[in-house]
Write a structure and sequence with these properties.
By secondary structure, this protein is α/β, with parallel strands linked by helices. The protein is built from 4 helices and 40 strands.
């Protein structure tokens, strides 16, 4: 039976050790033990918290935390005491990552080898130290790289190539001929290589005819895709996801899309078919990008935006339909002031003019 690696032991560091880890300055006692991390409002003695903005700084006075990592700009609002320490850093948010890594438990993975209840086709090629959990399936002529882990019930179709050091969580499905690079992380329920959404009317006009999709999906190194997201295969050629890109939960990537490197796509967003997204672009939650568009490099798209036109490099767009952020904000301001404008207009027009304005007709001349 498969075993799991586990590390459940309590981790403890002194305030001084944590300060050294993040290059911070300690104000207050440096030998206090820290055994956990918590928000400033909910922290208990023995726990460390983080103060990176004025909102959280307001809670420090009543917090029970033993220490706080504080952005230098907020030091006037967060003071140390005889029994509570402050670690001063340029940015508390940046320092948080290093400290979280210290306290993170080792990930529990299936044991090295193939679980007796897994199914691996004899023609599949497995690298060194692969981990394949119960109920997982690896299809014919597929290749699994060194140290890659397939959790229980992962399904890998035929002729799939998966690189080294990947983690595929339960419920992931990789369709035929798709390619994953090294260090790819796919969370539960991710579907890679599903058919693109393509239909045409039947000759008699009474139904829909499915368009075959013969391509695949290519995911480059160090991509992470959140739970229940889906990347469709190309109609011809590949749908591609660039190295270092991070995709949140419940995101849809349409067929033949080209997603660049280090792109961030937040949850509930969708990118329609044959659209390209440039390197370093950020897409907010629940945003939609129409098909056959080009979104440039370093673009920021606000949450719930509807993108219907190409976006040049480096611009920030928002709204529905999406437009330059400054224009979108101007429209919001005008809309909020519209009742005030109408009231003023009625005063200018007088009672008769106001009556015609309310009924949508022009004021008679003469």
């Amino acid at each position: 039976m498969a075993q799991h690696n586990s590390q459940a032991s309590q981790r403890s560091f002194t305030v001084a050790e944590l300060a050294q880890r993040v290059g911070g300055e300690v104000l207050g006692p440096g030998n206090s033990p820290i055994t956990g991390l918590q928000t400033v409002q909910d922290a208990s003695p023995g726990e460390l918290t983080f103060v990176g903005d004025e909102h959280h700084a307001r809670f420090w006075a009543t917090s029970r935390a033993s220490a706080a990592v504080v952005s230098k700009s907020l030091l006037k609002s967060v003071a140390s005491t005889d029994d509570r320490s402050v670690i001063v850093v340029p940015s508390a948010d940046s320092a948080m990552i290093a400290i979280l890594e210290l306290f993170a438990a080792d990930e529990e993975l299936p044991c090295v080898g193939v679980h007796p209840q897994a199914s691996v086709d004899p023609t599949a090629v497995l690298g060194a130290n692969v981990r394949i959990g119960a109920g997982a399936v690896v299809g014919p002529h597929s290749v699994i790289g060194d140290g890659t882990a397939l959790f229980p019930c992962v399904v890998v179709y035929s002729r799939v190539t998966i690189g080294s050091g990947c983690v595929l969580n339960s419920g992931v499905v990789i369709r035929e001929r798709c390619v994953l690079g090294n260090g790819v992380i796919l969370h539960g329920g991710v579907q890679i290589g599903t058919d693109g959404f393509g239909y045409r009317p039947t000759p008699d006009g009474r139904g829909l005819q499915k368009v075959p999709h013969l391509g695949n999906v290519v995911i480059e190194d160090n991509v992470e895709i959140g739970a229940n997201s889906c990347v469709d295969r190309g109609k011809f050629g590949a749908t591609t996801i660039g190295a270092g890109t991070k995709i949140d939960n419940l995101v849809q990537i349409g067929h033949n899309c080209r997603i660049g490197r280090t792109v961030v796509i937040c949850g509930l967003s969708g990118v329609a078919g044959s659209t390209s997204i440039g390197d370093g672009t950020r897409i907010g939650g629940a945003a939609g990008v129409a098909d056959h568009l080009h979104v440039g490099r370093g673009v920021s798209i606000g949450g719930r935006s509807g993108v219907m036109h190409d976006i040049p490099d480096g611009q920030t767009w928002a709204g529905y339909p999406a437009k330059d952020m400054r224009r979108a904000l101007q429209e919001v301001i005008v809309a909020r002031k519209l009742p005030e404008y109408i009231k003023h207009l009625k005063e200018v027009l007088g009672p008769e003019g106001a009556r015609h304005l309310e009924h949508g007709s022009e004021k008679p001349s003469g």
